[in-house]
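User: My collaborator sent over this chain with a note saying "see what the structure looks like." That's all I know about it. Can you take a look?
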Amino acid sequence: GIWMPEPKDLIKIRQEIDYSFDDWKKIITNTSFKKTFTEGIKGEALVRPPKGYDEDNPAIQFIKQKSFIVTKSFTDAQVQSKTFVKDAANTFKAMKPMVDFINAAVE
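Assistant: Without extra context I'll predict from the sequence alone. Here is the result:
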Protein backbone atom coordinates (compact mmCIF):
# COMPACT_ATOMS: atom_id res chain seq x y z
CA GLY A 1 0.00 0.00 0.00
CA ILE A 2 1.13 3.48 0.85
CA TRP A 3 1.90 4.87 4.28
CA MET A 4 1.39 8.57 5.00
CA PRO A 5 1.58 9.85 1.43
CA GLU A 6 2.39 13.46 0.70
CA PRO A 7 -0.75 15.64 0.92
CA LYS A 8 -0.91 16.15 -2.86
CA ASP A 9 -0.75 12.39 -3.42
CA LEU A 10 -3.32 11.68 -0.70
CA ILE A 11 -5.72 14.08 -2.42
CA LYS A 12 -5.23 12.20 -5.70
CA ILE A 13 -5.77 8.81 -4.06
CA ARG A 14 -8.95 9.97 -2.33
CA GLN A 15 -10.23 11.49 -5.55
CA GLU A 16 -9.53 8.28 -7.49
CA ILE A 17 -11.31 6.18 -4.85
CA ASP A 18 -14.27 8.56 -5.03
CA TYR A 19 -14.41 8.59 -8.83
CA SER A 20 -13.65 4.89 -9.30
CA PHE A 21 -15.24 3.42 -6.20
CA ASP A 22 -16.66 0.43 -8.08
CA ASP A 23 -13.14 -0.49 -9.24
CA TRP A 24 -11.75 0.03 -5.72
CA LYS A 25 -14.52 -2.13 -4.24
CA LYS A 26 -13.75 -4.95 -6.70
CA ILE A 27 -10.13 -4.91 -5.56
CA ILE A 28 -10.77 -4.93 -1.81
CA THR A 29 -13.65 -7.41 -1.96
CA ASN A 30 -11.83 -9.84 -4.22
CA THR A 31 -11.79 -13.29 -2.59
CA SER A 32 -8.01 -13.61 -2.75
CA PHE A 33 -7.51 -10.12 -1.30
CA LYS A 34 -9.93 -10.72 1.57
CA LYS A 35 -8.48 -14.15 2.34
CA THR A 36 -4.91 -12.82 2.31
CA PHE A 37 -5.51 -9.54 4.16
CA THR A 38 -8.11 -10.50 6.76
CA GLU A 39 -7.81 -7.18 8.61
CA GLY A 40 -8.59 -5.21 5.45
CA ILE A 41 -7.17 -1.74 4.81
CA LYS A 42 -5.36 -0.41 7.85
CA GLY A 43 -3.77 2.90 8.68
CA GLU A 44 -4.63 6.11 10.41
CA ALA A 45 -7.91 7.73 9.39
CA LEU A 46 -9.67 11.03 9.87
CA VAL A 47 -12.61 11.25 12.26
CA ARG A 48 -14.53 13.54 9.90
CA PRO A 49 -14.62 13.59 6.11
CA PRO A 50 -11.90 15.65 4.44
CA LYS A 51 -12.86 18.98 2.91
CA GLY A 52 -15.04 18.53 -0.15
CA TYR A 53 -16.48 15.13 0.86
CA ASP A 54 -19.79 14.30 2.46
CA GLU A 55 -20.32 11.74 5.22
CA ASP A 56 -22.96 10.09 2.98
CA ASN A 57 -20.41 9.30 0.25
CA PRO A 58 -20.41 5.50 -0.23
CA ALA A 59 -16.59 5.53 -0.29
CA ILE A 60 -16.20 7.71 2.81
CA GLN A 61 -14.66 4.93 4.91
CA PHE A 62 -11.70 4.88 2.51
CA ILE A 63 -11.68 8.59 1.69
CA LYS A 64 -11.03 9.25 5.39
CA GLN A 65 -7.90 7.10 5.31
CA LYS A 66 -4.51 8.81 5.69
CA SER A 67 -2.66 5.60 4.77
CA PHE A 68 -3.66 2.51 2.82
CA ILE A 69 -1.86 -0.47 4.33
CA VAL A 70 -2.45 -4.20 4.15
CA THR A 71 -0.41 -6.73 6.09
CA LYS A 72 -0.01 -10.46 6.35
CA SER A 73 1.99 -12.14 9.08
CA PHE A 74 3.92 -15.37 8.67
CA THR A 75 4.97 -17.64 11.51
CA ASP A 76 8.56 -18.82 11.82
CA ALA A 77 7.45 -22.25 10.65
CA GLN A 78 5.80 -20.75 7.56
CA VAL A 79 8.92 -18.75 6.72
CA GLN A 80 11.02 -21.90 7.00
CA SER A 81 8.63 -24.05 4.98
CA LYS A 82 9.32 -25.23 1.45
CA THR A 83 6.27 -23.29 0.22
CA PHE A 84 7.26 -19.91 1.68
CA VAL A 85 8.50 -18.38 -1.57
CA LYS A 86 5.23 -19.38 -3.27
CA ASP A 87 3.17 -18.14 -0.30
CA ALA A 88 5.00 -14.80 -0.27
CA ALA A 89 4.58 -14.44 -4.04
CA ASN A 90 0.84 -15.13 -3.69
CA THR A 91 0.63 -12.46 -1.00
CA PHE A 92 2.21 -9.88 -3.32
CA LYS A 93 -0.02 -11.07 -6.16
CA ALA A 94 -3.11 -10.45 -4.01
CA MET A 95 -1.80 -6.98 -3.10
CA LYS A 96 -0.82 -5.93 -6.64
CA PRO A 97 -4.24 -4.65 -7.85
CA MET A 98 -4.44 -2.30 -4.86
CA VAL A 99 -0.89 -1.05 -5.42
CA ASP A 100 -1.60 -0.57 -9.13
CA PHE A 101 -4.74 1.44 -8.31
CA ILE A 102 -2.83 3.68 -5.88
CA ASN A 103 0.11 4.11 -8.27
CA ALA A 104 -2.21 5.07 -11.12
CA ALA A 105 -3.84 7.67 -8.87
CA VAL A 106 -0.59 9.40 -7.96
CA GLU A 107 1.04 9.32 -11.41
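A starting point for your reply to your collaborator: The chain has a mean pLDDT of 96.
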